[in-house]
Amino acid sequence: MLRTLRGAGVDFIVVGGIAAVLNGAAINTFDLDLVHARNSGNTEAVLRVLDQVDAFFL
User: Fold this and answer.
1) Beta carbons within 10 angstroms of residue 45's beta carbon
2) Within a domain: 46
3) Which residue range forms the structural domain that includes residue 33?
4) Backbone dihedral angles phi then psi of residue 56, each to the nearest 5 degrees
5) Residue 58 reports pLDDT greater than 70
6) Are 32 and 15 spatial neighbours (Cβ–Cβ below 8 Å)?
7) What is the pLDDT of residue 18?
8) How far apart are CA 18 and CA 40, in angstroms?
9) pTM to 2 decimals?
10) Burial, 40: exposed, middle or buried (Cβ in 10 Å; 0-12, 13-18, 19+)?
11) Cα–Cα distance, 35 to 51 (Å, whole number)
12) How many CB atoms lie within 10 A of CB 43?
């Protein structure tokens, strides 16, 4: 997912549990929390990637 977002030129940061693990926290997490830049071009790129990976919202 991260490679796909980067490949599409999406501007984002990793937050939450994965960010904590990447910074050395000894926790387990199974989700990926991202925050993307909220400009129109970037939002459109995020939506294209989500469509490409068949993402869905519950």
Assistant:
1) 19
2) yes
3) 2-52
4) -145, 160
5) no
6) no
7) 87
8) 26
9) 0.76
10) exposed
11) 17
12) 13
> Looking at the domain assignment, is residue 58 inside a domain?
no
48-57 contacts at long range (C-beta below 8 A, 24 or more positions apart): 48/8, 49/4, 49/5, 49/8, 49/10, 52/4, 53/1, 53/4
Residue type, 11: D
CA-based nearest residue to 32, from 17, 51, 48, 11: 17
Residue 41: both structure tokens together: 């071009």
**Bridge partner list, 35:** 13
Q: What is the pLDDT of residues 15-57, one digit of tens each?
A: 988 899 888 999 888 888 899 999 999 999 999 999 999 987 6
- Report how many domains make up the chain: 1
Owner of token pair 């984002």: 12
57 part of a folded domain: no
